[in-house]
Amino acid sequence: MIYRTLKELKSKIPTGFKPIMHSDQGWHYQLPYYISELKRMNIKQSMSRKGNCLDNSPIEIFFSLLKREYLNNFEIRNIKMLTKLTKEYLQFFNNQRISLKTKGMTPIEYRNHSLKNYLT
């Protein structure tokens, strides 16, 4: 699963960017092939410190929103349905859902706004 994710991610990283991949300290994020693949892709590896759940708070907040705002409205019968619903919510979250934290912009708009300011 991790290798497939990295393979898909590789084609989406803009030229010249040096992304950071943040994760917890799960065993799969410590495997030699994963670490070497990140280096090969010029991705800096970042891990949560042991026992510090605050490092993971942004993704934990996202999963909480996913469940409260969307998944709890359905009786999920199988992994195919869960995958479909999750993709639908991601599309909504990234392209339509605005937030005060992102100055009233969607995450995509906020990212593009930030990149534009960073690059100029």
Descriptive account of the structure:
This protein is mostly helical and 120 residues long. It folds into two domains: 52 residues, 2-Layer Sandwich (Nucleotidyltransferase, domain 5); 64 residues, no CATH class. Helices cover 51% and strands 7% of the residues. The chain has five helices and two strands. It has a two-stranded parallel ribbon with strand order 1-2. Strand 1, helix 2 and strand 2 form a beta-alpha-beta unit. It is globular, with a radius of gyration of 17 Å. InterPro entries: Integrase_cat-core (IPR001584), RNaseH-like_sf (IPR012337), RNaseH_sf (IPR036397), Transposase_IS3/IS150/IS904 (IPR050900). GO terms for molecular function: nucleic acid binding. Pfam families: rve_2. It comes from Apilactobacillus ozensis DSM 23829 = JCM 17196. This is Integrase catalytic domain-containing protein.
Task: Please tag this protein with its features.
single chain, Nucleotidyltransferase, domain 5, 2 domains, two-stranded parallel ribbon, 5 helices, 2 strands
Task: Please provide a brief summary of the model.
The chain is mainly alpha-helical.
- Judging from the principal axes of the Cα atoms, what is the shape? globular
Alpha carbon gyration radius: 17 Å
Number of strands: 2
Q: Which series of helices and strands comes N to C?
A: HEHEHHH
* Mean pLDDT metric: 86
Helix content: 40-55%
Query: Could you name the ranges where pLDDT drops below 50 across 5 or more consecutive residues?
Result: none
Q: In angstroms, what separates the terminal alpha carbons?
A: 37 Å
Number of domains: 2
Largest sheet: 2 strands, parallel
GO molecular function, one term: nucleic acid binding
InterPro entries: Integrase_cat-core, RNaseH-like_sf, RNaseH_sf, Transposase_IS3/IS150/IS904
Protein name: Integrase catalytic domain-containing protein
Domain Integrase catalytic: 1-115
